[in-house]
Amino acid sequence: MVLGTMTRALTRPPRKDDSSGKTTAVVKGVLLGFGALVALGLALSLLKYVILVGVLGAAGYFGYRAIRGRAALGEGKSSATRQLADGSDFDRKMRELEAIERRLDREISDR
Fold first, then answer.
1. Which tens digits make up the pLDDT trace of 18-41?
2. CA separation (Å) from 23 to 12, 20, 27, 59, 106?
3. Spatial distance between the Cα atoms of 14 and 21, rounded to a whole number of angstroms
């Protein structure tokens, strides 16, 4: 019952002759400001842990991608692609392609 009386006293509009309405509004404002500061402090204190976990997760993810990326590059290439990338037989393959191109040009010009 006491709580209900106090709640009604805080929520009722102030009387014209009573100056406690302004005081109550100021006290409410101060308490609201303190509550906002506490909430902001809690949010910032939790935010540093979220950032720390995020940074560790990102480092682990990029480390995994770097290790798997190098292994996947070696596994995914065929032997012909690896030989061509290494530079071996490059000149021979280019000569073969030029010969094929000349032959196709002759066939087209004969028509």
1. 566 788 889 999 999 999 999 999
2. 14, 5, 6, 54, 102
3. 5
**In the chain, where the domains are located:** 23-76, 87-111
Give the tokens for residue 66.
């770097």
Number of Cβ within 10 Å of residue 55's Cβ equals: 10
| The two three-digit tokens of residue 105, written as one number | 């040009």
- List all residues 6 or more positions away from 84 whose beta carbon is below 8 Å from its beta carbon: 90, 93
Length of the chain counted residue by residue: 111
Q: Cα(32)–Cα(21) distance, rounded to whole angstroms?
A: 16
State the Cα–Cα distance between residues 105 and 100, nearest whole angstrom. 9
Single pTM value for the model: 0.36
Nearest residue to 85 (alpha-carbon basis) of 95, 97, 73, 96:
73
